[in-house]
Amino acid sequence: xxxxxPLDIPVIEPSSRVKGxxxxxxxxxxxxxxxxxxxxxxxxxxxxxxxxxxxxxAEGDAEDINQAVAAARKVFDDPNHAWNTMTxxxxxxxxWKIGDxxxxxxxxxxxxxxxxxGKPMGVAKxxxxxxxxxxxxxxxxxxxKIEGNTIPISVPYAPGAKFHxxxxxxxxxxxxxxxxxxxxxxxxxxKLGPVLATGNxxxxxxxxxTPLTALRLGEIIQxxxxxxxxxxxxxxxxxxxxxxxxxxxxVDKVAFTGSTExxxxxxxxxxxxxxxxxxxxxxKSPNIIFxxxxxxxxxxxxxxxxxxxxxxxxxxxxxxxxxxKDIFDDVIAGVSAAAESIKLGPGLAADTExxxxxxxxxxxxxxxxxxAGQEAGATCLTGGTRRGDQGYFVSPTVIKxxxxxxxxxxxxxxxxxxxxDPFDDIEEIVARSNDSTYGLxxxxxxxxxxxxxxxxxxxxxxTVWINCYNIxxxxxxxxxxxxxxxxxxxGHEVLDLYTETKAVxxxx
Length: 508
Ligand code: ADP
Known about the structure:
Blueprint: H1 16-23, E1 28-30, E2 33-35, E3 42-47, E4 52-58, H2 62-77, H3 82-85, H4 88-104, H5 106-117, H6 121-142, E5 150-151, E6 163-171, E7 174-178, H7 184-197, E8 201-205, H8 212-224, E9 231-233, H9 238-247, E10 253-257, H10 260-270, E11 276-280, E12 286-289, H11 296-308, E13 320-324, H12 325-341, H13 360-375, E14 379-382, E15 397-400, H14 407-410, E16 417-423, H15 426-434, E17 438-439, E18 441-445, H16 449-458, E19 463-466, E20 481-482, E21 485-486, H17 493-496, E22 499-507
Parallel strand pairs: 7-8, 7-10, 8-9, 10-11, 12-13, 12-18, 13-16, 15-16, 18-19
Antiparallel strand pairs: 1-2, 3-4, 5-6, 6-22, 11-21, 14-15, 17-20
Helix pairs in contact: 2-9, 4-6, 4-8, 5-6, 6-7, 9-10, 11-12
């Protein structure tokens, strides 16, 4: 696709600290040791604002995954290992320290994230990095509260017998975790926080587009004092390192965040040893605005932010905007004006409000959907093209007149593209909202509290935001219905997914 409007991209030098981190080739972490990949291969990581290479990173494959899994297994299977003899209170303090160290290194982590992923550094400073720290702090508190139950049992075939029966929650074992590139540090935190809180050992594979903050987090985890071999980090490609981890016979659970397509591959790969699987996958989330919404201006800003936050590269992006007919024109005019006012630029520039997409591949994917929608007869109100001819920038895009069967309405675009359509009543909009293979999130905007609750109850989605959007908290479980996933991230729900229940029955 041809870029329509030029974009002036200032060149911004990273700080000396970040430059120092990028200078040496970044290695894999196995058993507490940073090492080259077994093949000696590396891969390049790029700045999406201009396509320049910023680092070389070790390219691990199946052999490195084998080594990392063996290291994790060795720790997990040794009852006398420091990780396994540590008291819950001591483990909680270690995890708390990781949160503290993340905050101590906030500026560096935000800069690295911005450079690698393209997101505005200002956003990474107030959202990605503090949320990551908060996740570890939240999980630290849970370590001393992972309890079983005492269960009164009856046993009809043993009349008169007495038993003392109870359950214990034990770690699942060796966990493989595979994460995406849209919130690289935060996704690592969402995954590693609960794995550590529950006493498991882990091999983490970051996304190949954005491995840098996970590697920095590996250093922080070491600095906090987590014993060697508990957290292993193998960078590499999805088809090699990721696939090997998902299929590994000595891995007890795999936790994946990414596309629904790859999620299905993970399920297949995991079937060999029936390892436990949790998945946080794609979405095509409806954002429903009723005409009685309280403050139209705030609602419009909320609808714009629901889709444009993180350049639309959010699995829960409010990408289907449904507006009650009477106010449809006003709302889409407002969202289009908001789209046009967004300042595009490199993540490191202080005034940037939206950075580039993460990669050339994403640029092609998103502009492909923009073209497909227009070719299918939808109307592009604003945007609809690439911006500039360097880096991976696209214009925030608002589309109307799309029919419910078009690919831009049904498929996850993962870019700043919203499809808007009017509706007449609740019955219609609930049915259309639920008419999706996904069920990750939904938004509702109304001043009628009863209508809000009635609608929320009928939406098949793991999260429903009412008069707000994209509100995340370590205490709030997040995950999907239908093909948006299995299980939940965050909250105390996630702890169940990293533990096995052991029932113990003692004859008295
Ligand atoms: P996207 O399409 O948005 O890049 P993916 O679902 O492809 O997202 O990637 C998310 C994560 O899954 C990344 O860490 C990637 O390396 C990994 N991955 C990709 N393909 C596979 C696979 N076949 N097996 C295991 N992991 C994979």
